[in-house]
Amino acid sequence: MDQHSFCDALGPEEGNAVLRDHWDTWITEDTFQQMADREVEIVRLPIGDWTLKPYGPYVGCTDGAKDKITWLLDTAQRYNIKVLLDVHAVKGSQNGFDNSGIGNRTIWTDENNFSHWEHAFGEWMGEWDNDSGSYKSINQDNINWAKDTIQGLLDTWGEHPAVYAIEPVNEPWWASDLDTLKSFYRDVRAMMKEQQPRLKFVFHDSFHFDGNTWNDLFADDDHENVVLDTHQYFAWWEKRGDIGLYCDDYGAVMNMAQYVKYDVWVGEWALATDVCATWLGGFNDANTDANRECQRVDCPYSYLSEHAVDFDRNAERLGPYGSSGLNRSHSTIQKGKCPIDSAYYSDDQVMRLGQCTLDIFNGTVEGHFMWTVRNELEPRWSYTSSYDMGWIKNKSENKPELIQ
């Protein structure tokens, strides 16, 4: 569930109580100890643009977020771990996905059914006209709000020793108006360069990973501390047979980095080779068919310490239902079982995939971040589990820095 819907449904008091329980339980000092023990050098911290200036249902619901981020930065500093502040969600939704803070244009047809993916548009920049495939106009107020968000980050944490980089917007969708996006990027980088020149300016490629699109963003003699962020997953690819085919094709994709004049970071990747992970396509929804039959395992019990509530583990299928997921079994929990990645590839094959991926990164990019540090169900989506399973080599075997 996206945070806008969460706060709207629970209200400011109950929503805030649950969020505080989550913040205090999900990432603790022990998490940082585990990361340090596993050679993590930098983490990417996703935050919403409401963190310092809440609006709408976020008012009250997200109280305490600023203090928790300060705690996280202080803790990271103690463990010599750097932090990339990633503005993961912006007003209006930069991509229409739930990870933008709101599943944009979600329509409820009744209390048990909704539709989203059919009209999931990124409208941070302005109102989208799907008939013409363009924006009716540019919403400069939202653009200015996003710039002010960065100013707030610089004012609040710009001098914190743990802060290493700032990314002003995560995954602006592929249909973004690139002239507007580039202007926004240039303005933000100018702010950072003037106020905190030590920080790296990280910009997402808007799902256009090629030098021809981005090499004109900054002059050839003016791109110090500029990093292009690209997100490259196996999960949404068409299925392959031998695991080595993923390695071959991934290497071909990552070789595109040689045509980008900036440093390149892979800001998100994982070892999953299918879209089976519970709610990967949104809460009780899915916009992509699974390549192979998903495994099902017992759903975990809540990790919350004070606000844990269980569900009916005997229910045939738990609603409400997204229209795109109705005919996709992996979209919902069934009889207390949660879907996870296909068992088609053995642990040894996943290790082969992990090792070839790191070899590819070492030859093509300056850093990479696995999504995510921990996961309740999916070791292929978990850095600590993947490390402990031996699927990803440690730094002593890979000379360039390993970034999580």
Characteristics of this structure?
2 domains; 404 residues; 9 helices; single chain; TIM Barrel; 3-stranded mixed sheet; alpha/beta; 14 strands; 7-stranded parallel sheet; 16% strand
Radius of gyration, whole Å: 21 Å
**Could you give the distance between the termini?**
25 Å
CATH architecture of the largest domain: Alpha-Beta Barrel
- CATH-defined superfamily of the largest domain: Glycosidases
Instruction: State the shape.
Output: globular
Helices and strands, in order, run as HHEHEEEEEHEHEHEHEEEEHEH
The CATH class assignment of the largest domain is Alpha Beta
Contiguous runs where pLDDT drops below 50 for at least 5 residues: 396-404
Give the helix level as a range of percent: 25-40%
Protein name: Glycoside hydrolase family 5 domain-containing protein
Keywords: Glycosidase, Hydrolase
InterPro entries: GH, Glyco_hydro_5, Glycosyl_hydrolase_5
GO molecular function: beta-glucosidase activity
